Amino acid sequence: MSDPLPERTFSPEEVAKTLGTSAWWVREQARAGRAEHLRVGKGRIRFTAAQVATLVERATVREDTSRAERQPVPVDASVLGATVRSLGAHRSPRSPAASSGEAR
Length: 104
What we know:
The protein is α+β, with helices and mostly antiparallel strands. It has a domain at 9-59: Multidrug-efflux Transporter Regulator, Chain: A, Domain 2. 37% of the residues lie in helices and 10% in strands. Strands 1-3-2 form a three-stranded antiparallel β-sheet. Helix 1 crosses helix 2. The longest helix is centred in the middle third of the chain and has 11 residues, at 49-59. The termini are far apart.
């Protein structure tokens, strides 16, 4: 009785192309332990279809339905009033002669 054929494996480049990412990102997920993978030979990384599915599952961001949709809180900035700096910024620009201290 012979063993069944092993499952097809995918290179980081094939996984990246499928996911629309870079091969570097796929390898980094494997290196960091965030993606299950196979090590075949010296440093060669391969992925099974189930491992790719698990990687997709872990990278999926789901909508948080537990919180109400956040709305910006209106702020009344008029209570702050004008500052010396803001008033100075709105004055007419000084001429170069006036800023150097020369008399007119």
